[in-house]
Write a structure and sequence with these properties.
Length: 175
């Protein structure tokens, strides 16, 4: 009986999800990373793509959006490869400006020449940006600046770090 109720509820929800508006986008840009207790700063140019996004409107002023961010930085003997899954909420302030609180997980592989470790880190941060419609076709140009704090994972020896990003993105609104 429980399965039938869950299936019935699912069938009621599916049409609204299929009819929902979806925003799909790609970003390219500059990431600056500063790892705690490591000399130097990593700079990563994510061109042509540093991340992808998928968002769903949740009212007039809120877009629930998940970002998948890919990164590789090298400075000195230190190399960092990351794959971050970062859910966030874009809160529209006016017609074009938005702020984005976010929290997520980042898989990081840290290699300093003698030690090679990998693990998952928690991250939190925020961003601010501008969304500019491109014509009448549903395309959107995005300019965004953000900062994330990746927390130290003492168990696996992954140090904490700061990631500052400046990205340009293009989105397509579907439905």
């Amino acid at each position: 009986m429980k399965r039938i109720l869950v299936l019935a509820l699912g069938l009621l929800v599916v049409p609204s999800l299929v009819a929902a508006q979806v925003e799909i986008g790609v970003d390219a840009g500059l990431h600056i990373e500063k790892i705690t207790d490591v000399d130097g700063t990593g700079i990563d140019f994510g061109v042509p793509v540093s991340g992808v996004r998928l968002g769903f409107p949740a009212g007039e002023t809120i877009i629930v959006e998940t970002m998948l961010d890919l990164g590789y930085s090298k400075f000195g003997d230190n190399k960092v490869t990351t794959l971050a899954l970062v859910p966030g909420v874009n809160i529209l302030v006016g017609d074009q400006f938005y702020v984005r609180p976010e929290a997520g997980l980042s898989y990081a592989k840290f290699d300093n020449g003698t030690t090679d470790v990998s693990s998952t880190q928690l991250l939190f941060g925020g961003a601010a940006g501008i969304r500019q419609p491109l014509g009448m076709g549903g395309a959107i140009l995005r300019l965004e600046a953000g900062v994330d704090r990746l927390l130290e994972n003492e168990d696996d020896g992954i140090p904490s770090s700061w990631d500052i990003r400046f990205v340009v993105g293009v989105s397509a609104v579907v439905n």
